[in-house]
Queue: 3 jobs
Job 1
Amino acid sequence: MTGTLLDYEAEAARYDETRGGVPRAEAAAAAVLRLLPPGTRTLLDVACGTGLVTARIARPGLTAYGADAAHAMVRTAAARLPGRAVRADARRLPLPDAAVDAVSAVWLLHLVPFTEEIVAEAARVLRPGGAFLATVDKDACHDVGSDIDALLRPYRSAAAGSDATARVTAYAASHGLEPAPGTTFTGHGQGATPRGTAEKLRRGYFASWYGTRTAAEVDALCAALAALPDQDRPRPDPEYRLARFVRRPATDR
């Protein structure tokens, strides 16, 4: 257990199969589509990963582009988004100002300490009236009140996550983005099992909320998880929150 971010270059090969696959991707894409302003023609999906969600956003009249910082993720995404996937840091997008109608960031902000930079860059590339959509409060959404959560909860950081709604909303406001009604969607296939949670803890998952822990602490928590009943029965899937922020017209700024 290191408390560091996962190696997403290495994760690319197994990312989809371990993150709910197509059902979760379809739910996320449908949520994004529900929040897009009428007339949206172009969307940039930052941290697009394997492009599984991005490809399901695209449809006639709406072109979806993907950007990710990991080479392996972009290689996979490129097969799903021919000519529309690029390797890029979400803090320095290879786009001019006011270039796209929408920007999405699904399952990104909870992973990074530079949330404001991502929000600022999204605001920069958005056209007036465009929307920035981002998952928020992800770690909190994974607490579904199960017996697993009862064990994990005392270990969670008391500090608000980097994707906390209040924090993201404040950053958005400082960069000309106004909050608008959001939505939720089901994280299909993400219901935790005791055995799977212990395996993930040992591999270094949950870094965004668990932090650095000693080997003894990890061993103790894994032992407690091993004592729970129904080791391979998934607990309820989480319900993720997708927030929406709209770029104010130039005359209002």
Job 2
Amino acid sequence: MSAKNKYILCTIIAVILSQGKSHAQQYQTTVDIRVPFVPSPTVINGKPCIYYELNIANFAKDSLRLKTLEVLNATDSSTIFNVDEPRLKSRVKRLAISPKENNLILPPGSFAVVYLEFNLPSKNTGLHFVHRLEFDLLNGSKTTRVSIKGASISIGAEAPLIIGPPLNGGPWAAIYEPSWLTGHRRVFYTINGTARLPGRFAIDFIKLDNNGRYAVHNEDTVRNWYGYGNDVLAVSDGVVASVRNNFPESSTLSGYQSPPVENATGNYISIKIGNNQFVFYEHLKPGSIKVKPGQKVKRGEVIASLGFTGQTTGPHLHLHIATKDSPLGAEGIPFEFEHFKLSGSYPDLSTFGKKVWMPLVKPAWVSKERPAPNSVVVFDKSSKQISSH
């Protein structure tokens, strides 16, 4: 081979190698994103919606600042739900930080949870989502924008869980709000080495009078609350899984002392109503539980009385459904009521107990839905009620 041909060959090889190098993807350690648990959809105000959490772990050597999050249709990459930086800040919980710290900045090795609730494009199941997270990598004065795509999920095809009323009549305020920092929706419990969210779909029911007040005369006296002592009903046929019936009760709010977290439920009943479906009734009146473990119950049966035990700010019924017979060690799953009358809602809870709720122009009976946050409902008094054994 001539010197000229050798030169040409070496030049070609050099160009090929340089092109290969320029097109190679450089590895960059950033974050791990995943969805640990995907509940089935539920219907609120006539629209199907989904609740779940996105976990973010920073494996990079630099801190990062979260910017935006998109939930995309994995089939056509269309945007299903978008969260910009201001709204992302209200949805992110970074573990073990002070209130003064920016929860959107994740130092190396830190972990955060993004709480997501949004309407689905249709009731159609079989949807597949993927998440696109944008963030800035912070290396001294240098900022690098990074976009990653991952945490694919599929929306299950299982039908929503439909239950009967847990209480009679009303009006009952269905108190919950996904955005509350210390609400049931955002409180994890670690049992046997696993963090779970049992109250993901929990509702606290407080009885009102027609003027929106929850107690007559002195509200410090527990017995003056309208809901206190009301019958608690089995929402479905099932088998009693566990009970607690010996937790003491303060007769006044002023004399109440909050128990430790392991006693947060107060007196409670757990009923197995299906495979991996346990309904929990909490804060029950001492000595009022009428059922025992292993006992079969029928929908509408009186099983206990509403009380004031455990971690609570007043007499109410806490209701949630979870995957295991463990008040704190199971994943909360959605449920819908077969029917209830929607009377209105409290857009501003600062008026709760002081003024009447914002009424609907035409209160209406709703079928197979979950009450919207802080709505006011009435359960059908004509529903068949079975006396307890």
Job 3
Amino acid sequence: MASNWRMFAAVVSVSSLLVGVAACGSGGDGDSLTITANAINSAGGKNAAEAKWIEDWVIPKFVADQQAKGVTVKVKFQATGVADEDYKSRIAKDLKTGTGADVVSLDGIWVGEFAEGEQIKPLNDLVGADKVKAWDGWQHMPDTVQQLTSYNGAQYGIPQETDGRVLFFNRKLFAQAGLPADWQPTSWDQVLEAGRKLKAVPGVTPVQLNAGTSFGEATTTQGILPLLAGTGSTLFENGKWVGNTAKFRAVLDFYRTLYSEKLGDAELQQDAKGREKSFEKFAKGQVGILLESDYFWRGVLDPSAGSFPMTERDTQVGWAKIPAATPGTGVNHQDFVSISGGGGRVISPKSKHVELAWELLQFMNSPEALKELIVGGGPRITARQDVNADALGGDPLLTFISQQILPITSLRPALPEYTQVSKALQQATLDVVTGKSTADAAAAYGKAVTEAVGKDKVASD
């Protein structure tokens, strides 16, 4: 998701006095290569850890790496720290007019929109298919992760980080409810059964499944999309958005069952600060099961630096894969499913220094660079499995997601209409949580999606 991704901005001034730089397309003294992203190295600044990584490690190391090749490079850091939508608007304008950076950090969900607008082009077109294929990093990225910066089968950039969603649960509450400490449900019914047992524990919300519009995109990515994947459907397939289909109605039925039986807190889903409150309740031992990404583990519950630190996190918090509706009915006939987000970097089609930009992209996604990012910025799941295997060994949850979730995960559709469809999805869950029938909520959703994208681009049955 855009808000969760640490981005950076750097300006690289390149001397063109050397033959090596001339080979990269530099034309005269003072030519420069610019990289932009949304990060600022200041106390409390946006994505400060990554900005610091750029200043303290990437810049001197890249300068030295280029010097070893006979190329003199001067690097400057250009800080940015604005709201994600403001950043998106700025780079969209810059890419369209050619006035912006050569290398641009981009949330994966924006790639399709920018590609459709011809603001970015495939790496093969810019760098050459042979050079792109020759980069050894691809072999260490699962296909699902590579898709973070791809669209319609073409690769537009290099992914940097990703995440994955699981079911977190409180082992102490599970013990009180007579549930196992190594719980792994294999169907939606088993999740509901666990919720019914947890309901008997006083003062506990059995299941937190994000719903409604106040949770925003968290409802879509930590609720609807994993469930939809569990029916064997993705949100966009065969050129059409999922509308009022039987599989979508099955998702709404699950929501309706969970909240009508009061296994979840319907009022919390309508609270403007509902997500933060759900985090706090879990940290205090008042929520049994919660569907979230690894951010919940490393950013919310972290005992030393979390927004809602949980002292006994490492012993009390368990996790499980999200089951398909029934075994084998998930996407690609999977037993378990997930949803991932993330982003990476692309090269501006109007860059005058594409080859040098490609060198920098490779450098910043090398094992050495990404390991240093983890050391300086805290645990995170990178796009490279070789890095994850080496650098995440001490974190059981991140290792679990890297090894067992990324190979089975799915991504959000990177299309311009996604935002409108996502809002319609959120409204549909709010409708059933507040008492509307599944049929009526699904019909209203189907109508909203049709109005947003056109009847010929909506599947229904």
